[in-house]
UniProtKB/TrEMBL annotation:
This is Roadblock/LAMTOR2 domain-containing protein. Belongs to the GAMAD family. Residues 15-103 form the Roadblock/LAMTOR2 domain. Pfam families: Robl_LC7.
């Protein structure tokens, strides 16, 4: 088996294509793509904001991974979805990059209080 099949290379072209595809989705407000070290490589955010999100994501990932390890030791985080009344954050980590998307969720949020 070739190394590329096990550990795919994430080229600039690949990152640009992922960014373009995600950006075309309705409701997307911000996109942050980080390398395996958590450093932003492409983003629609301001620089300081992208660095803050990257740092917060790393803390959240560590906590989620610790939780998953307690449930099933062989499991790793593959997708995380966090929703508030107005926003939804979708996080997809892999071996080379992590894609973090902030999207508008208020249009589909159901207000149960009336």
């Amino acid at each position: 088996m070739q190394v590329a099949e096990v550990d795919p290379i994430r080229t600039k072209r690949y990152v640009d294509e992922v960014f373009r595809l995600v950006q075309a989705k309705p409701g997307v407000e911000d996109i942050l793509i980080m390398n395996h070290s958590g450093v932003p490589v492409k983003t629609s955010m301001e620089r300081q904001e992208s660095l803050q999100y990257a740092c917060l994501y790393d803390n959240l990932r560590e906590k989620c991974q610790a939780f998953l390890s307690k449930m099933e030791p062989a499991q790793t985080l593959t997708f995380l979805r966090v929703r508030t009344k107005y926003h939804e954050v979708l996080i997809t980590p892999d071996a080379k990059i992590t894609v973090l998307v902030v999207q508008n969720a208020k249009d589909s949020f159901i207000n149960i209080k009336g």
